[in-house]
Amino acid sequence: MKINIAIVGLGFGAEFIPIYQRHPHTNMYAICQRNTDKLNEIGDAFGIEKRYSNIDDLLADPEVDAVHINSPIHNHAEQSLKALRAGKHVACTVPMATTVEECMEIVKACKESGKKYMMMETVVYSREFLFVKELYEKGELGKIQFLKASHQQDMDGWPGYWPGLPPMHYATHCVGPVSGLLKLEAEYVSCFGSGTIREELIPHYNSPFAIESAHIKFKNSDLSAYVYRSLFDTARQYRESFEVYGSQKSFEWPLIEGEDPVIHTAKKPEHEIPERVKVPDYAHYLPEEIQPFTTQGVYDLAENTHLSFTQGSGHGGSHPHMVHEFVSAIVEDREPFPNAVQSANWTSVGILAHDSAMDGGKLKNLPDYGSL
């Protein structure tokens, strides 16, 4: 079975073209980009004939089975809804949407259309996450007691809608792993803002905070998680971290990029409790044709390397894993991970966390997306 894939947005999106070109179940059918010079440059570089400068024209093409959306954040919900309603499967880069109402609409459209929706959250397919998941599933961590994650980045100089963005409006990289490890559903959240960004940045979103830190309570679980985010005026090397504390072993992210993470093992002599570990690669989970993409960037054109990829250290080898999950869900007619309900929950944690911060830390309940 070959699925005709169309990629919308060719900045970060072009990273995925060669993966779809080599995946045994996909035909890299079409690309879409408003800037026709960029469209043709990428189309020529990767040998893709079908090119669209308008998403409506692309969605009207009956040959397109699925779209992978990599457009700016504020287009995600609108384009995902259009694609689902046009009868296409949807993979969309994070976050799912910018409002709780949009998340609800996407969940409903997914049910009504019978099509698959997957938010392409890199962290839950990173080699570090897959390593911790493997430890958990083998029982080595024991009972999970607490989860923690951060995403800190300096967004100065990023274009368009980024200046002044509330930190928690782009929170899925830290919400995803703490929710995703045990497939937990966030029930409510409380968040505090701390510090103040530069005066000229505040009016863009009326959001003053340099850092937002949130506690998440999970439904039908004794667990809670702590996540924090910063985007401006906070000195920190790029970091997407997550940490898991278990009764037998705990996993802690390194403080500096490039160092090895630490496993703490209970009941050893104090000085033997921590141990640095090498995280293996998980290319063996993938079809042979796309295994090389866990350890190398996929651009042929050096000048096209996207800033999020270089700052994000290649997103932990996650790209081919996400592609394989999305494609496999369509081929096997099952729900992808994360599906629409999970994606809405993770995205809404961030949206409502920011609301909570603006409201002095007041508890905010998440909608029950599964009942829509």
From TrEMBL:
What the entry lists under InterPro entries is as follows: Gfo/Idh/MocA-like_OxRdtase_N, Gfo/Idh/MocA_Oxidoreductase, NAD(P)-bd_dom_sf
The chain positions of domain Gfo/Idh/MocA-like oxidoreductase N-terminal read 3-119
This one is known as Gfo/Idh/MocA family protein
PANTHER family with a match to the protein in the record: D-GLUCOSIDE 3-DEHYDROGENASE, UDP-N-ACETYL-2-AMINO-2-DEOXY-D-GLUCURONATE OXIDASE
